[in-house]
Amino acid sequence: MKKTILAIAATIMIATAVQAQDDDSKKRPQGKRPDRTEMVEHRTSMVVKKYGLNDEQAKKLLELNKAYADKMGPRMGGRQGGHRGPGNGQRPGADKKQEKKADGTTEATLKPNDSERKAHREQMEANMKAYDAELQKIMTPEQFKNYKADQEKMRKEGPRKPRQNQQ
């Protein structure tokens, strides 16, 4: 009798643990990255939930996020490594140069151009300011205040925290 009760309890615990697993793994094959549309929709839904946006605000935010996806890089669902040059997989201002080693051989290296990197950074900052200005029109003053406070907190804390700590 005790063994039967323990077996049932163990089965229930295992079933509960399995059910608690994230269902995202079923939606997308293992190892496949989400496409641009999925990333934009995910970011939009996270902002809608976090700041309590209504349906009208959510619709406008989705359109805004779609418009800025390519301008803002991976943060908004653009290309992975959105800081890279147009389709060449290099940083902005990175030129391939041949360097001669002491033994006479040459090696291709990437030399970033500081002025191009600065121009790219300034363009990204301008894009973020324009995005925030549009977002401020969509959100209520309280929602936008909370959003900006969270943005400032993220800048101070640095890289993202592990997923377990989010939400």
Characteristic key phrases:
167 residues, mainly alpha, two-stranded antiparallel sheet, 6 helices, 2 strands
How would the blueprint of this fold be written?
Elements: H1 2-19, H2 24-27, H3 36-51, H4 55-72, E1 95-100, E2 106-111, H5 114-138, H6 141-157
Antiparallel strand pairs: 1-2
Helix pairs in contact: 3-4, 4-5
Structure write-up:
With 167 residues, the protein is mainly alpha-helical. Helix content is 59%, strand content 7%. It has 6 helices and 2 strands. The chain is extended and about 75 Å long. About 8% of the residues have low confidence.
Number of helices: 6
Specify the helix fraction band: 55-70%
Overall number of strands: 2
Content-based structural category: mainly alpha
User: How far is the N terminus from the C terminus?
Assistant: 42 Å
Strand content: 5-15%
Assembly level: single chain
Sequence of strands across the biggest β-sheet: 1-2
Low-confidence parts: 78-91
H/E topology pattern: HHHHEEHH
Q: If you average the pLDDT, what whole number results?
A: 75
Roughly how many Å is the radius of gyration? 23 Å
Biggest pleated-sheet summary = 2 strands, antiparallel
Shape: extended
